[in-house]
Write a structure and sequence with these properties.
This protein is 77% helix and 0% strand. The protein is elongated. The model has no long low-confidence stretch (mean pLDDT 87). The longest helix is centred in the N-terminal third of the chain and has 36 residues. With 221 residues, it is mainly alpha-helical.
Amino acid sequence: MKALVDLFDGKILKYTFLPFILSILFWGVVFYFFSDNIYAFLEGYVSYIPFGESIKNFLATIGSGLVIFIFYYLAVISTLGVFSSFFIDHIVIRINEKHYNLTPKKPTFNDTLKGVLVSIKSFLIYFVIFIFTFFFLFIPVVNILYQLFMWSLLNKKPLVFDSSYLFANPDEIEKKYNSRIWALVFLTSIVYFIPIVSLFGYTFQLVFMTHFVLKKLKEEK
């Protein structure tokens, strides 16, 4: 319940909109200049993957404009963690001040840079796997589990780092609570199925993960 209330906290909302706007602008520029190349690549690439002919016919049916919009949307929500890395400490500190009163370390530029690198690494791993497996998106029922797994793979490590680095060693937190963290990230990834709300999905997950991590750290004291 506390996590849901925190989603509407003014300070948290402020640092939710900033990465969302940056992601929209960044990918807007990329797709504005390269949308034709992206569609041509997709059209050629699907010929080499399972169900390629069926996928190609489906893409032709819905039209290039909608296909580009779908991939633009996926790109925006998939990089929210990267852009959020620049503002994460404000959200985590706000949650700590309201509920846990733990003593954080002072965030540094190196911490921010490491958070960005963790997010970029996770995105690159996600992107490579997505390129070779996105045909699962076209298999009913399987596509739901596939997307939940992929979003979990994308966000798990960034969420652990962002929620804990001011208070503890993120690697130790992940190792100690790995199965519960996977479950939390997997379940909260459902938010990405909700139009518009999904654009703030990373902050939604971060708030829940921060409460989980700080509660565990508080209990250990």
